[in-house]
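Researcher: Next entry in the queue.
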Amino acid sequence: MTISVRDLSDADGEHNRQLIQAALDTHGSVTLPSGRVPVTGGLVLAAAARLSGSRNTVLAATAASAQPVVHILGPDAHLSDLTITLPTSKPGPHDGARFTAVTIGDYLYPDAPIWTDGVSLRRIRIQRPAQCAANSIAIMGAVRRTSLCDIEVTGGGTGLAVHWGAIATSVSEITGPSYHPHDLRIKRLTVRDAFEAFYLSSVHDVLVRGFHADNVEIGFRLLPGDNADRYHEDPEASQVSQRISVRGGRIRWRGIYGIRVAGWGRSEVDRSLRSLPYQRVAVTDCDLTAIASPPAAASTTRASVVLESAEGVHFSGIAIRGADVTEATIDGRATSLAEVGPVTVPLRRR
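Model: Structure for this entry, 350 residues:
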């Protein structure tokens, strides 16, 4: 179904949200017309729903909202050919799945969820103020077999946040089990003027190919999550932190590090530390350029790559450039990245 521009309001975002949601619920597949479409947060894509734009369709969030502009909660949903603009928002410390342009899955579940799989995002552009701390796209919890391709993010906090979820009332009261995104394919992700391009927390079987991070505080992080696989539904079969590949990236970063890989996390439940080894994890063919840093970062040792309890991660084909930058730190010790893998281009001072 194609929604007519005559049926949409130029100013009433809630009217437009209700109209689009009703069309999705009734027809399953909706195409929006070209032009700017004001909308309040809270569009939900259920199983097999399809929402796409026409040429130059812009979904414009009318106000900061904790609800994602688009929340994907069903398998085989498809989102494509849209620009989503958002105003400044102020998320809390555990609001990674909230205040977003798009969230797939959820962070905290009241009871056992149905896995969201087979989702695809294609040709999505997200624009938000640079000073906004909110994530732009979030993949949370029980999400698998999902692909993202040709995604562009300008401004905001993390361009793409991938994080475990769990049955819980809060991050400090987890009953479990936990759910870990896996079988993800991310291709041609571009993030500009944001805090970071992406992070992967407590995941497995993820491929990231051909990404570009320009003028970001940090490039990306690989993390085991604050509880690692502590609440995994089958601890003996956990595959968290296995088979992750990040390849073909360009990063121009301005903060205290370009890449961070940590194998430890501190639980919000009881503050205990937990480590999880990486297995078959590789970062290859990435170009890191340190650019001029703000005063706060300039007063701190800057390292292109930071490794913390991160044995089992292979680096190769890494080019490192920038002035007054340590090549790598391993558990706080400054060293050469060649200690953990070959560097194709030596550190250049410029």
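Model: The radius of gyration is 20 Å.
Researcher: Noted, moving on.
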